[in-house]
Amino acid sequence: MSIKLLPREKVFRDPVHNYIHVQHQVILDLINTPEFQRLRRIKQLGVADYVFQGAEHTRFTHSLGVYEITRQICDNFAVNYPTKTPGDGLWDDHERLVALCAALLHDIGHGPYSHTFEHIFDTDHEAITRRILTDPSTKVNAVLRSIAPDFPEQVASVIAHTYPNPQVVQMISSQIDADRMDYLLRDAYFTGTKYGEFDLARILRVMRPYQGGIGFDANGMHAVEDYIVGRFQMYQQVYFHPVSRSMEMILTHLLERAKTLYEAGRFDTRFNPRLLVPFFEHQFNLQDYLRLDDGVLNTYFTYWLDYPDLVLQDLASRFLSRRPLKSVAFTDKTAGLLPKLRALVADAGFDPAYYTAENDSFDLPYDQYDPSVADPKTQIEIIQRDGTLEELSTQSPLVAAISGRAIGDKRFYFPKVMLSKNASDLFADTYAHFQQYLLNDSLIDPR
């Protein structure tokens, strides 16, 4: 394996980590590939900047941050826990380069408005990430092959969680990994919130390798608790914000309307979204995918402001000009009322297929390992003084209180005008009837 160091360390100035340090030529070469540079044009938080105006940071900056945290973990392990004999469970620094490359490239397969796009066009960003790494047509693959012929597959196996060393996999993907730690700190910084802040330096200091992965010294458990609580708060206050979810619903319906018109053969060729056609036809290749970014979609949305179909035109206007739908929380008990609300929205002149939506957003702040579930979580291990391992929630009453509990809500979205109090409006009676089902941000049965 050929590993070339830069003649002088290169640094990237970063608001979260101060400096991001690059010592390997391969890392700099990967950053300079067109596939990685595309991430500059994809926002990390999708539509969240409609709520938190500073949240315009990109997948590019996040990926560099994950690389930097992984580099610091490798430095800590190499200095404090170097392997002495094969199989002793300590850190073999020959694993450093595969860990750094996987960290840098872990999000390279994200598409425009990532998760909404995936939902509409049935793509899988992790599968596409692995494809970018292993496809001989990409510059990323060429750079990775310069290290060794099988190096692209090694890096891809870290993304796929099949790499043989669990220490490397858990650096990138676990319940407390470089990916989560960077996005919490970065998203907190750019949204202007404080919920996601935690003591990164302390967590990295108490992190240590063992035979089965990565654990944390018992005397650093409170820093880990702080991270878990910060993540919990970020999901409730930022990632699950009702208005962000509203803009996602509008974006979803906008793309669905365009897709429906195209599939019906009714798309006006003057507004043909050429770069989206392979996705409408379910016949896209990797190059089609890599041509897309947030700006491409926004350009098409701007064209559609003049589109003759009034639904597509209006949804494009709502998305570009930030006119979110309103929402109300509902439960399994009140879900039976939703057909009535949709009917009232239709009575007010809106197609409920495009102007109403249900969204449920739930997250597990922390979950104990359960091998019986489809996607078992890697539990956080606290390393005792005698070297034994104890799962975090057995040591922390705070974490135990939220462990295994899905937290979030279900919301029903509808046009803002349904809340109108204008008695002279043509649909005033319909609006009043609709409002009888709402109380204190919750759906109720008025009977």
TrEMBL record:
Domain HD: 59-184
One Pfam short name: HD
InterPro entries per the UniProt record, alphabetical: dGTPase-like, HD/PDEase_dom, HD_assoc_2, HD_domain
PROSITE patterns: HD
Listed CDD domains: HDc
Protein name in UniProt: HD domain-containing protein
Organism of this sequence: Lacticaseibacillus jixianensis
Lineage of producing organism: Bacteria, Bacillati, Bacillota, Bacilli, Lactobacillales
